[in-house]
Amino acid sequence: xxxxxxxxxxxxxxxxxxxxxxxxxxxxxxxxxxxxxxxxxxxxxxxxxxxxxxxxxxxxxxxxx
Amino acid sequence: xxxxxxxxxxxxxxxxxxxxxxxxxxxxxxxxxxxxxxxxxxxxxxxxxxxxxxxxxxxxxxxxxxxxxxxxxxxxxxxxxxxxxxxxxxxxxxxxxxxxxxxxxxxxxxxxxxxxxxxxxxxxxxxxxxxxxxxxxxxxxxxxxxxxxxxxxxxxxxxxxxxxxxxxxxxxxxxxxxxxxxxxxxxxxxxxxxxxxxxxxxxxxxxxxxxxxxxxxxxxxxxxxxxxxxxxxxxxxxxxxxxxxxxxxxxxxxxxxxxxxxxxxxxxxxxxxxxxxxxxxxxxxxxxxxxxxxxxxxxxxxxxx
Lengths: 65, 305
Hints:
Oligomer: heterodimer
Number of strands of chain A: 4
Structural class of chain B: alpha/beta
CATH class of chain B: Alpha Beta
Largest sheet of chain B: 8 strands, mixed
Strand content of chain A: 35-45%
Largest sheet of chain A: 4 strands, antiparallel
Shape of chain B: globular
Helix content of chain A: 10-25%
Number of domains of chain B: 1
Order of helices and strands of chain A: HEEEEH
Mean pLDDT of chain A: 91
Helix content of chain B: 25-40%
Strand content of chain B: 15-25%
CATH architecture of chain B: 3-Layer(aba) Sandwich
CATH topology of chain B: Rossmann fold
Radius of gyration of chain A: 11 Å
Mean pLDDT of chain B: 80
Shape of chain A: globular
């Protein structure tokens, strides 16, 4: 995913719809390769894996692993 | 796991395999080579002009039952969200229509499809698209943030369609449009036949009837609801999918149509001043868009190849 302002502004926590904070762990140019979003309300973390943010609800992420 | 999770896992598995098949088949120049144009559901949906510049993998991975972009009346600068974006074909087509000032986002829960979609976006050079992993029952988008929601034969896969429609209504701006292709049932049919036809059409969680769709959209807050048949599947279609015997046993004698259709479902978030209805189509939409097959279609989510 790109660090595009329009895109970042449009993302919220899928559970409580609160704003998210982005933490970048690896990037290339304007693209985030790895990192995570943290919900400013419930503190749930949503990982960015291989450039794609994963907003599956926590229990689905666990079921999938 | 709950029943809902089991259904989602099944969907994820099927579509994960389909993404892998699409990738292999594009590399081989078409998967179902000897089988004509693929299945009756996913073939002949896009025009040559539409798919000319798209990566082969995006075209081959298309498991839709319609062409939502063709009916969404997209305008430059709009923000579009595709529910269940798969290999990304409808997101890429939307991105072209809304232009550089607009955005097209794809939401999907299958890793293999997301990976394929991202590669396809890179190959086609569009920059106004992004793909998100997530569920359409819990969308990671704020209220009133999207102009148009499209989807291609995916709402039927959800075990909680009320949640999907409620979320769709929430993220749409007032006046925002819902323009979705989906499999819908019509009239009554024996349950054994209904279930088999649904599985043939890839409707893992069960298709809604026209009336159910309408009342669920209305309960979610939508107005200007219109459901129009694009294709009505025939006994021959089902026979080509291996259901001939079943159809003979259960379908009404001599029934040409089976009560399962691909439809366009349109509605509007009626919360705003812009409540101009969609342009009227003349009763039915143009019949199967005169086309070129989505070459080597993967033959639906069921097994093929």
